[in-house]
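> forwarded from #structure-qc
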């Protein structure tokens, strides 16, 4: 799998975010032995099928939030957790505050924020 990126090795950039037992975690802070018996989901495991994207992935595509793509897997994984933790109700200030641990080198934050805000109701209606 190549979606999860090593960006900084100091847990500051967020490019390595994965989901462990339903919560987003910066994988560079976790040893493999620590997740033994846990459910680990990477960006590759989000789509429900080969021809259907997760609502957050669709929102990133539809809102042009991809740019170079290096930060995208971590942003998507963090955003899904953010939406769930905030009960599918977000505003721009909350999204921007919660993205502080994820860096976009292309400075594509405006469209990333738009994508997350668009994905929240889609995730709720899809039940994910």
């Amino acid at each position: 799998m190549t979606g999860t990126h090593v960006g900084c090795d100091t847990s500051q950039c967020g490019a390595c975010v994965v989901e462990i037992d339903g919560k987003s975690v910066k994988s560079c802070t976790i040893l493999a032995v620590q997740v033994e018996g846990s459910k680990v989901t990477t960006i590759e495991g989000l789509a429900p099928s080969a021809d259907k994207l997760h609502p957050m992935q669709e929102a990133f595509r539809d809102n042009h939030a991809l740019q170079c793509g290096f930060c995208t897997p971590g942003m998507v994984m963090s955003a899904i957790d953010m939406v769930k933790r905030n009960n599918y109700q977000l505003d721009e200030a909350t999204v921007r505050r919660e993205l502080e641990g994820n860096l976009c080198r292309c400075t594509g934050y405006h469209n990333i924020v738009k994508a997350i805000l668009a994905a929240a109701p889609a995730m709720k209606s899809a039940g994910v």
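QC bot note: The chain has one domain: 17-126. Residues 67 and 107 are 9 Å apart (CA to CA).
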